[in-house]
Amino acid sequence: MNKIQLDTNNYRIHNDKNRRIIRKSLEDLGAGRSIVVDNENFIIAGNGVYEQAQELGLKTRIVESDGTELIVVKRTDIATNDEKRKLLALVDNHSSDTSEFDMDLIFEDFDVADLEVWEFNIDDVFLDEIPDQLTQPKKDSLPSIKVTFQSIKQMNSFERELKTVLKKFEGAFYSISAGEI
């Protein structure tokens, strides 16, 4: 069996907080879900969990499937009303909220139309509503928009994503001043 390999183009960015939460969950509550690898043992889903599990020395068991059956992980040590079960349900959902998408990689691999089929709403990443001009191929005239931010974190996240979108527009630029772009 080949060694499991991390996805070199992982769409998720696991920051320090996210890694701490995953690690604490594995330490205190144990593994709560499976990860997914392809037929060459490269991780498709679960890079962050696998990294922390490896650091903790957790054993790994591969269950093969062709995708036509759902693999269920049954935790025999946890009952429905256990505090540990409640915490695992909370932390499992919370840990995904503390990572973010690497939009540069996503926009390298997918068009906006591809993302919309899966209800991956880039409007949520950027603005309440992205002007149609931003999702079209390069044009002669550049769109002009004004965005106001509620926090520096929101502005920084938007700026990362904006750089990717602006690549579609030859000569496009942006400037930030007084909390506005």
Task: Give an account of the 3D structure.
39% of the residues lie in helices and 5% in strands. It is built from 7 helices and 4 strands; from the N terminus they run βαββααβαααα. The strands form 2 sheets. A two-stranded antiparallel ribbon has the order 1-4. A two-stranded antiparallel sheet has the order 2-3. Residues 127-131 have low confidence and may be disordered.
Give, in spatial order, the strands making up the sheet with the most strands: 1-4
- Contiguous low-pLDDT stretches (5 residues minimum) are 127-131
Average pLDDT confidence is 81
- The assembly state of the depicted protein chains is single chain
What is the rounded Rg?
20 Å
Secondary structure category: mainly alpha
Q: Give the amount of beta strand, in percent.
A: under 5%
Which percent range fits the helix content?
25-40%
How many runs of DSSP E, i.e. beta strands?
Answer: 4
| Coarse morphology | globular
The helix/strand order is EHEEHHEHHHH
Task: Please describe the biggest sheet, giving its number of strands, its sense, and whether it closes into a barrel.
Answer: 2 strands, antiparallel
Give the distance, in angstroms, between the N- and C-terminal Cα atoms.
51 Å
Number of helices: 7
